[in-house]
């Protein structure tokens, strides 16, 4: 008599994370593009547009760096939507479903690998920003809060990307999520003060998640804890992450290939 091997969550998570990290190293062009595009955009905004944008008492590189970090994390996380859809088209997800692997671990492996990629990309953005004049004055508490907020943002955004990848029909349609990751920050306080926008756009910018997240990060980098922005930011990322997590598990269970 044969018995099925029981799922071992920690081992499964390690295996799935390792698989996705290896996949990333074999697709360096996508990874490098996801990192370099925000860096190039930062250089463009700082040296081409920065002098024409009035951001009050801020040096523009100090104003825009938190936004570029979010942009880089969002774009790197968005590559997960394509990765999971490629696995679905190749039949790999169907294979995982037939094995004694926790469905949460299959998806959480993608999230953990995304966190690792994004830690590297965020560090690179900060180093480049410091080379061109970014001078944060955050203390130990503020840096701790920055890490917590960025980690929560990365996890929530990656789960959202996974859901879009799971429900997409093709890898090309899954890549549309990357457009959202790049587009929404522009309609926030990420690059310009929202007071400079038309009134209707101000309303949207004020109440979409990127504005409080960017404002919270920006204040933290200069040693100020904006409690209102921080609480709203955490509410957004925790709420979005929970909904995306449950939706992704549902899609993984029910969505079939092609």
Describe what this molecule looks like in 3D:
- Keywords: Cell membrane, Membrane, Transmembrane, Transmembrane helix, Transport.
- Residues 29-255 form the ABC transmembrane type-2 domain.
- It comes from Mobilisporobacter senegalensis.
- The model has no long low-confidence stretch (mean pLDDT 86).
- The protein has helices at residues 9-25, 28-49, 60-89, 92-98, 103-131, 140-167, 171-174, 176-183, 199-207, 210-221, 227-254.
- With 258 residues, the chain is mainly alpha-helical.
- The chain is elongated.
- It has 11 helices and no strands.
- It has one domain.
Brief characterization of the structure:
The protein has helices at 9-25, 28-49, 60-89, 92-98, 103-131, 140-167, 171-174, 176-183, 199-207, 210-221, 227-254. It is an all-alpha fold and 258 residues long.
Radius of gyration: 19 Å
Structural class: mainly alpha
Shape: elongated
- Determine the N-to-C terminus distance: 36 Å
Low-confidence stretches: none
The total count of strands amounts to 0
> How would you characterize the largest beta sheet?
none
- The ordered string of helix (H) and strand (E) elements is HHHHHHHHHHH
Q: pLDDT average, as an integer?
A: 86
Number of domains: 1
Compute the number of helices.
11
Strand percentage, roughly? under 5%
Helix percentage: over 70%
In terms of topology, how is this protein built?
Layout: H1 9-25, H2 28-49, H3 60-89, H4 92-98, H5 103-131, H6 140-167, H7 171-174, H8 176-183, H9 199-207, H10 210-221, H11 227-254
Helix pairs in contact: 1-5, 2-3, 2-5, 3-5, 3-6, 3-8, 3-10, 5-6, 6-10, 6-11, 10-11
């Amino acid at each position: 008599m044969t018995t099925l091997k029981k799922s071992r969550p920690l081992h499964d998570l390690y295996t799935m994370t390792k698989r996705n990290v290896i996949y990333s190293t074999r697709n360096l062009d996508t990874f490098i593009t996801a990192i370099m595009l925000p860096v190039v955009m930062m250089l463009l905004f700082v040296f081409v547009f920065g002098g024409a944008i009035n951001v009050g008492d801020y040096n523009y590189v100090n104003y825009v760096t938190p936004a570029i970090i979010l942009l880089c994390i969002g774009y790197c996380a968005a590559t997960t939507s394509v990765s999971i859809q490629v696995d679905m088209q190749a039949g790999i997800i169907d294979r995982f479903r037939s094995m004694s692997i926790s469905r949460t671990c299959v998806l959480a492996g993608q999230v953990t690998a995304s966190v690792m990629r994004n830690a590297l990309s965020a560090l690179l953005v900060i180093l480049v920003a410091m080379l061109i004049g970014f001078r944060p004055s955050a203390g130990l508490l503020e840096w701790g809060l920055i890490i917590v907020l960025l980690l929560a943002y990365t996890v929530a955004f990656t789960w959202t990307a996974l859901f879009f990848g799971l429900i997409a029909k093709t890898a090309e349609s899954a890549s549309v999520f990357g457009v959202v990751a790049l587009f929404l920050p522009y309609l926030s306080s990420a690059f310009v003060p929202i007071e400079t926008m038309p009134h209707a756009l101000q309303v949207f910018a004020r109440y979409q998640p990127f504005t409080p997240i960017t404002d919270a990060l920006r204040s933290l980098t200069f040693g100020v804890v904006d409690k209102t922005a921080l609480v709203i930011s955490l509410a957004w990322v925790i709420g979005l992450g929970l909904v995306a997590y449950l939706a992704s598990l549902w899609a993984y269970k029910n969505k079939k290939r092609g």
